[in-house]
From TrEMBL:
Entry protein name: Creatininase family protein
PROSITE patterns on file: PROKAR_LIPOPROTEIN (PS51257)
Keywords in alphabetical order: Hydrolase, Metal-binding, Signal, Zinc
Signal peptide: 1-18
GO molecular function terms listed in the Swiss-Prot or TrEMBL record: hydrolase activity, acting on carbon-nitrogen (but not peptide) bonds, in linear amides; metal ion binding
Species classification: Bacteria, Pseudomonadati, Bacteroidota, Cytophagia, Cytophagales
Source species of the chain: Emticicia agri
Origin superkingdom: Bacteria
Family of this protein: Belongs to the creatininase superfamily.
Keyword Metal-binding found: yes
One BP term from GO: riboflavin biosynthetic process
Gene3D superfamilies the UniProt entry points to: Creatininase
């Protein structure tokens, strides 16, 4: 009965709020609502959709740097018309190292891109949601999402994401490609942006460039050692792009997205890993060189800290990001073990301050 009541209230909330941006929308855009409205909508039954697309990454001389952003945003709009989900703002930065030789392109490190997704999801999961889906329009982003999904699964959170290499998505695009060879800023991406923001496309500069065919590694607009010369930044047949193909491809791709979102909404959640025995090794009191104390404790499979007498356990706790390495909103801790395998000290970063602490009491 409690679950039925929750679903009823959630349904009413969605119907009241979802139409603020577009009267036809079934989804709610998180950025459009207040925290009190979010409080009513974010719960264990909510599916959260996160669009991910670079807002500053080269896509040839004819497309804007925001090409990925526009595609992710455009796909999210199509999802919004069909699904009762919560859609977050577009995550516009990520792991795109292959394009850094082209002016204006930006990339985070692999670790930063992974952690950014993990931390966004963790923040929202704190309000109840356990099911997340990422509209991923990148290729190099996929390994970061795979890593993030594994980390979150151990916390009982489901994260899934679109991936070009999956047969369903590849087949969806193949129907609209004139040429079988494609890769980047090509026929399909050009068509997609023509269907979304034709005012940002300069087809007079769109060229067909297959110089990367059969090659792997980073492209570069000027010849450098170990790089692949590609003066256009295009990998494929951009000149073949049309608005009509873009409309059809975006609809086809969105259809596959929604099938996966449906699966995310119904499949079993991962089981939270019991780490109580593991966390026991870290518990205790540590001191830095000035006598300030770091207290580490655990409760209900969660690791907590108190630094210098300031108790923030009700606000921030420690997440395991790697073996012996934990992070929270304002504290990062790397625990160090001695030769016998016992934790005896730790390296810490509290906001901008970095220091060592030594374990003085178990």
């Amino acid at each position: 009965m409690k679950k039925i009541f929750l679903l009823l209230i959630t349904g009413i909330s969605f119907s009241c709020v979802a139409q603020q941006r577009n009267p036809a929308n079934k989804a709610i855009y998180l950025e459009d609502i207040s925290w009190t409205e979010a409080q009513k909508i974010l719960n264990s039954e909510t599916v959260v959709v996160i669009p991910l697309g670079a807002a500053a990454k080269e896509h040839g001389p004819h497309l804007p740097l925001a090409t990925d952003f526009l595609q992710a945003e455009g796909l999210a709009k199509r999802v919004a018309l069909e699904k009762k989900v919560v859609i977050t703002p577009v995550v516009s930065y990520g792991f795109y190292p292959a394009f850094l030789k082209y002016s204006g392109s930006t990339s985070t490190t692999f670790a930063t891109a992974t952690n950014m997704v993990v931390e966004i999801v963790r923040s929202l999961a704190g309000y109840g949601p356990r099911r997340f889906y990422i509209i991923n329009v990148g290729v190099s982003t996929t390994p970061t999402l795979e890593t993030a999904a594994k980390t979150l699964a151990e916390e009982g959170i489901l994260l899934y994401y679109s991936q070009y290499s999956r047969p369903a998505f590849d087949k969806a695009e193949a129907r609209f490609r004139t040429k079988t060879y494609s890769g980047h800023a090509d026929e399909i991406e050009t068509s997609n942006v023509l269907s979304i923001r034709p005012d940002l496309v300069n087809m007079s500069k769109a060229v067909n460039d297959s110089s990367m065919k059969g090659k792997s590694g980073n492209m570069t607009p000027v010849m450098i050692e170990t790089g692949n010369l590609n003066t256009s930044g295009i990998n494929g047949y951009a000149a073949l792009g049309t608005k009509e193909k873009g409309h059809k491809n975006m609809a086809s791709f969105a259809s596959e997205l929604m099938k996966e979102i449906d699966s995310v909404s119904t499949c079993a959640l991962p089981t939270m890993k019991d780490r109580s025995a593991e966390y026991a090794a870290y518990e205790g009191i540590y001191e830095d060189a000035t006598g300030k104390k770091l207290e580490i404790s655990q409760k209900d499979n969660i690791l907590y800290f108190i630094w210098n007498g300031r108790d923030t356990r009700n606000f921030f706790h420690l997440y395991k990001d790697a073996p012996d390495y934990f992070s929270s909103m304002n504290m990062n801790i790397l625990f160090v073990k001695n030769e016998s395998g016992a934790v005896n000290k730790a390296w810490c970063q509290f906001r901008g301050e970095r220091f060592w602490v030594t374990k003085v009491q178990n």
